[in-house]
């Protein structure tokens, strides 16, 4: 890192990566005038794959070291949490580009294949977030963004008076919720995970660390799927599965695979031997199955049987793309619960069927731990109607995220049980801390939460409650083993703070949902204080209802060692944005999340250094962001109208204008006055040059690993604009 204040801007994937080619040069030039460096760090899926194979520097590992230092200042854009399907596509693209890397071995047999699989496994799922999130989460909407949403409300579709849509979960019958056990480790020690006495893994547990162990019964999961399919058939509902098979890269793909086998049971019963011979893995979805069928004499017959099931069987299966007959079960990365369920609520309990019609759905979310939240959201809206966007209160979040907290850090300690028996968590003195009787195929996992992360989470909740003056609700269920221990610790650590006058209730998930929704409908703000997964789910649900998107949320991670990580919103729709850009040259990605994150990043440097130039730069960006919103300069969704590239022009112009008129630093005002004048004077020419490329297909040299020169040329097509920026 430079001795100067330095911001690390992450180079990632898909739509936000394309936007970076346009916006990053603007950022670098502007903030350099305040003595701030900005540098790129490639933690894209392709970058991580190349690093894993020794073909590139391991930028993620470097950032993992940086977040443990007080000078850390990282702007983290949304990255791909890769499924196996995406990983294989990325590898194939890199191989085509000339990189000498091996194929991904789906069923490694030799020692070499096992080593290759292990290296590639580091790129799957939530590989990035647990490394960088060495602090807890503070997510909220900026007031300017909230006011804009209220003035320009998006549409939430009404629920029918007799709406039959509902959320189905296992209700504590054999799921993770029901089987959870939890202990607080009294002293640092080595803890072993054993199956029938054989050690599967050892971990180093810290003093006062919370350890949980639980499992999902495969038999009961499959029975649950069968029951919900019958219910959807009887009630004429669409059947839809909602999991997090990208982030929960071990457990949820297995749960996804069971759903594929159950929904297409007749196909698997009839052609099971052939599918097994082909090496079909249902965990990878129908897309992978179709690919394997190319090597079978029965391929066309089996594919037709699958399509007949989709077209004719009852119930109807939810579609991702009805025109392409792309289903809810095509690939595990296509339907991510935190992105998909807010859409179900937004659409009045509906999803799309094979004919492209929106119909009420039975939304299947197996584990009750989170099913309770979505069930309560659905039932509340069925009873009370949609929210009023123009008056709805804000729901912000303080999330326990630091040091790989809870489920999102459980990948190394999650197992598909290979044989019937007993799973045990054993302390170093031989005592059994937790014990489960399991069957072959069950999904067992150990989950961890460190004491210093929990203490900081409680501290942050008290701080935000004091600043905002609204209730901060701890979403903890005393009937869940983990939460029962967390309630003890929350009460213990709250006593370390002055909580006079603060409302800090503890509520189970369903009660907290109804309480929060009632306040939101009354126009009152509430802070949700949650664990890691609920943090993820709530900070998509409420922003999508409040603002139309979660990408416009402030997402600040005050790092435990004093630095800051500033996340820029969700990238769930990014693939569709890229498809449109490649075919039409139009990128509808809204970079407002990046604009807001940069302002907070600069503000942190100002507070650390008390540097007037940096303070002026941050304040001017705040004003630019307000102007961007007030003047409605977000990208259009339609081709041949101003897109992401044009939005960067407007942000740069408003920023320069604000800098030219501020009085805190006269030198900055003098520096940016001609820039503001040039940008204003050349408005028509710049917009004409930007729009000239609209409607034309773009070649950027790759989806996962674009050619930088081609991508930058595609995203910076205005010679006039580029020259003004480059002269700063």
Write structural notes for this entry.
The protein is 47% helix and 16% strand. With 728 residues, it is of the alpha/beta class. The strands form five sheets. It has a ten-stranded mixed sheet, sandwiched between helices. Strands 5, 10, 13 and 14 form a four-stranded mixed sheet that branches. Helix 14 (337-346) packs parallel to helix 19, helix 15 runs parallel beside helix 18 (509-521) and helix 23 crosses helix 24 (666-681). The longest helix has 19 residues, at 14-32. The protein is globular, with a radius of gyration of 26 Å.
Uncertain runs with pLDDT below 50, 5 residues or more?
none
Largest sheet: 10 strands, mixed
Total of DSSP H or I helical runs spanning 4+ residues? 27
Q: Strand-residue fraction?
A: 15-25%
State the distance separating the first and last CA atoms.
Answer: 24 Å
Rg: 26 Å
Given the C-alpha coordinates, what overall shape results? globular
> What's the count of strands?
24
Structural class: alpha/beta
- Overall pLDDT: 96
Output the strand order for the largest sheet.
2-1-3-24-23-4-15-22-20-21
- Proportion in helices: 40-55%
Name a few traits of the molecule.
alpha/beta, 728 residues, four-stranded mixed sheet, ten-stranded mixed sheet
Brief characterization of the structure:
The chain is an alpha/beta fold.
Produce the secondary structure layout.
Layout: E1 6-11, H1 14-32, E2 37-42, H2 45-52, H3 59-66, E3 73-76, H4 84-96, H5 111-121, H6 129-132, E4 137-141, H7 143-151, E5 166-168, H8 176-179, E6 181-184, E7 189-195, E8 198-205, E9 210-216, H9 218-235, E10 238-241, H10 251-263, H11 265-278, H12 285-293, H13 299-312, E11 319-321, E12 326-327, H14 337-346, E13 350-352, E14 358-364, H15 368-384, E15 395-399, E16 414-416, E17 421-426, E18 432-438, E19 443-449, H16 451-468, E20 472-475, H17 481-494, E21 506-507, H18 509-521, E22 526-530, H19 532-547, E23 553-558, E24 564-567, H20 574-584, H21 592-609, H22 612-630, H23 644-661, H24 666-681, H25 683-691, H26 708-715, H27 719-726
Parallel strand pairs: 1-2, 1-3, 3-24, 5-14, 10-14, 15-22, 20-21, 20-22
Antiparallel strand pairs: 4-15, 4-23, 6-9, 7-8, 7-17, 9-19, 11-12, 13-14, 16-19, 17-18, 23-24
Helix pairs in contact: 1-20, 1-23, 1-26, 9-10, 10-11, 14-19, 15-18, 16-17, 21-22, 22-23, 23-24
């Amino acid at each position: 890192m430079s001795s100067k204040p330095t911001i690390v801007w992450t180079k990632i994937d898909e739509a936000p990566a394309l936007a970076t080619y346009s916006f990053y040069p603007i950022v670098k030039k502007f903030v350099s005038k305040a003595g701030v460096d900005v540098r790129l760090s490639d933690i894209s899926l392709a970058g991580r794959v190349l690093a894993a194979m020794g073909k590139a520097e391991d930028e993620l590992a470097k950032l993992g070291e940086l977040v443990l230092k007080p000078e850390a200042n990282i702007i983290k854009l949304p990255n791909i949490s890769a499924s196996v399907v995406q990983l294989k596509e990325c590898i194939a693209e890199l191989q085509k580009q000339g990189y000498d890397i091996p194929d991904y071995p789906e069923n490694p047999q030799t020692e070499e294949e096992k080593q290759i699989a292990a290296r590639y496994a580091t790129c799957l799922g939530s590989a990035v977030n647990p490394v960088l999130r060495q602090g807890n989460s503070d997510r909220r909407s900026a007031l300017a963004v909230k006011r804009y949403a209220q003035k320009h409300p998006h549409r939430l579709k009404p629920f029918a008076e007799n709406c039959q849509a509902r959320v189905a979960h296992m209700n504590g019958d054999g799921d993770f919720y029901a089987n959870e056990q939890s202990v607080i480790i009294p002293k640092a020690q080595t803890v072993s995970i054993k199956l029938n006495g054989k050690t599967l893994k050892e971990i180093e547990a810290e003093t006062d660390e919370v350890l949980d162990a639980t499992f999902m019964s495969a038999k009961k999961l499959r029975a649950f799927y069968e029951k919900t399919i019958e219910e959807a058939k009887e009630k004429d509902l669409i059947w839809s599965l909602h999991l997090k098979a990208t982030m929960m890269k071990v457990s949820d793909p297995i749960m996804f695979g069971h759903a594929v086998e159950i929904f297409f049971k007749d196909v698997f019963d009839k052609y099971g031997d052939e599918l097994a011979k082909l090496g079909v893995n249902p965990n990878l979805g129908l897309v992978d199955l179709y690919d394997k069928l190319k090597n079978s004499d029965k391929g066309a017959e089996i594919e037709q049987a699958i399509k007949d099931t989709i077209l004719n069987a009852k119930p109807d299966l939810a579609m991702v793309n009805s025109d392409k007959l792309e289903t809810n079960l095509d690939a595990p990365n296509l339907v991510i619960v935190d992105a998909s369920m807010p859409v179900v609520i937004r659409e009045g309990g509906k999803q799309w069927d094979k004919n492209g019609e929106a119909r009420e759905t039975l939304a299947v979310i197996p584990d009750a731990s989170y099913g309770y939240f979505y069930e309560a959201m659905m039932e509340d809206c069925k009873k009370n109607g949609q929210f009023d966007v123009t008056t709805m209160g804000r729901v912000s979040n303080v999330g326990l995220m630091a040091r790989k907290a809870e489920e999102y850090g459980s990948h190394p300690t999650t197992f598909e049980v290979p044989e019937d028996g007993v799973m045990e968590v054993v302390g170093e003195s031989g005592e059994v801390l937790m014990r489960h009787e399991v069957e072959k195929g069950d999904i067992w996992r150990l989950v961890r939460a460190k004491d210093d992360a929990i203490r900081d989470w409680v501290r942050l909740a008290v701080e935000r409650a004091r600043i905002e003056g609204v209730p901060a609700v701890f979403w903890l269920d005393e009937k869940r083993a983990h939460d029962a221990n967390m309630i003890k610790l929350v009460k213990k650590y709250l006593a370390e703070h002055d909580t006079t006058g603060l409302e800090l209730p503890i509520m189970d998930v369903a009660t907290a949902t109804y309480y929060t929704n009632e306040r939101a409908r009354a126009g009152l703000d509430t802070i949700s204080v949650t664990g890691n997964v609920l943090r993820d789910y709530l900070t998509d649900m409420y922003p999508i209802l409040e603002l139309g998107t979660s990408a416009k949320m402030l997402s600040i991670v005050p790092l435990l060692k004093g630095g800051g990580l500033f996340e820029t919103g969700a990238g769930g729709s990014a693939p569709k944005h890229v498809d449109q850009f490649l075919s039409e040259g139009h990128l509808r990605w809204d970079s407002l999340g990046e604009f807001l994150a940069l302002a907070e990043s600069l503000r942190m440097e100002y507070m650390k250094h008390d540097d007037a130039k940096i303070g002026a730069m941050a304040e001017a960006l705040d004003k630019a962001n307000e102007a961007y919103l007030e003047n409605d300069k977000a990208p259009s969704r339609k081709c041949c109208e101003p897109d992401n590239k044009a939005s960067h022009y407007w942000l740069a112009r408003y920023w320069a204008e604000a800098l030219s008129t501020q009085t805190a630093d006269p030198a900055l005002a003098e520096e940016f006055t001609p820039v503001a004048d040039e940008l204003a004077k050349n408005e028509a020419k710049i917009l004409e040059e930007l729009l000239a490329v609209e409607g034309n297909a773009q070649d950027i040299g790759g989806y996962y690993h674009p050619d930088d020169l081609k991508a930058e040329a595609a995203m910076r097509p205005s010679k006039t604009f580029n020259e003004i920026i480059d002269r700063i």
